[in-house]
Amino acid sequence: MVGQALKRRLAAENVTAVAGDDNDADLRDPARLDSLFAAARPRQVIVVAGKEAGIAGNQKQPADLMLDSLMVAATVIPTAWRHGVEKLLYLASSCTYPKRAPQPLSVESLWTGPVEPTSKAYAVAKLAGMQLCDAYRLQHGTGFISAIKADTFGPGDDFSLDNSHVVSAVMRRMHEAKLSGNPVLEIWGTGEPRREFIYVDDLADAIVFLMKNYDDPQPINIGTGVTTSIRELAELLRNVTGYQGTLRFDSNRPDGMPLKGLNSAPLRTLGWAPTWELTAALASTYESFLTTL
Ligand SMILES: NC(=O)c1ccc[n+]([C@@H]2O[C@H](COP(=O)([O-])OP(=O)(O)OC[C@H]3O[C@@H](n4cnc5c(N)ncnc54)[C@H](OP(=O)(O)O)[C@@H]3O)[C@@H](O)[C@H]2O)c1
Q1: Which among 226, 238, 239 has a CA at the least distance from the CA of 174?
Q2: Confidence of residue 150 (pLDDT cuts 50, 70, 90)
Q3: 191 alpha carbon to ligand 1 midpoint, in Å?
Q4: For the domain 2-291, what is the CATH code?
Q5: Could you say which of 29, 68, 128, 168 has the lowest number of CB atoms within 10 Å?
Q6: Max CA-CA distance within the chain?
Q7: Mean pLDDT value across residues 225-251
Q8: Taking the domains of the chain in order of start, what are their residue ranges?
Q9: Which helix (H) or strand (E) holds 260?
């Protein structure tokens, strides 16, 4: 999802973009990656590849998720350095923050406490990737940076029932409820928890902005600064999908954290702001979802 959005965004830049998936490269394979870098001779690298999963996937296959992320970072970052890459951005997600860190999450809170246990293996791998960028900066003076993104959605999202996140999961279930004429759609939890969502095209735009404007050992958050409750999200999705049934919030199901958002003030101060309004972004995602059916 993020890689495709970056390709769309980079089409507007005066660059030649070479994507790992154009070359069918397994980024964990140092020899394959070495020849890819030798052929393409990239000056800048953006690392967004990596297996990811929802809560269920994180619990079912923590070893696979952790190993893929660790190996991608441990292969791509040193290869980029060996080939003289000037700038590299490593993308991590908000699961790297300690579970009980103050909200909104600021990078100063990284490493200050235990992370959410259900995604611990994956989070530790992402923390290691960010730390490796920092270590290369320290040891070799490279312009390697890392960024932490808010929950992302958009075209190319995973809409599968066992691996999706809240936006894609509720969108798909609502669409199916509309088609089957189901009068009631159940949504886990009270609907009260608030989360921060960023549309993938805004995320891609922020990444390109950071490649041009950020050069610091400290990771930087990429978010919108706006949180939305699950109930508000479900109502917006109802408008977007045209589902006319009733939403029933099942308070017997776990809510998770009451609030999760990123402090993206440093990114705002640098001069970047999101451009996609949430309803329009959800509508665009729904349009792309329909084309996948
Ligand atoms: N979407 C989210 O909400 C979310 C949440 C937490 C973290 N993230 C992180 O954000 C980044 C972007 O995620 P996304 O949403 O764009 O995920 P995505 O749509 O699943 O895309 C990930 C891409 O990485 C590729 N990939 C994975 N392991 C690879 C390897 N060893 N070699 C080459 N390619 C590999 C995948 O290729 P295949 O399809 O061939 O496997 C896929 O094209 C990832 O680092 C992910 O871990 C995303």
Answers
A1: 238
A2: very high
A3: 28
A4: 3.40.50.720
A5: 29
A6: 61
A7: 96
A8: 2-291
A9: strand 259-260
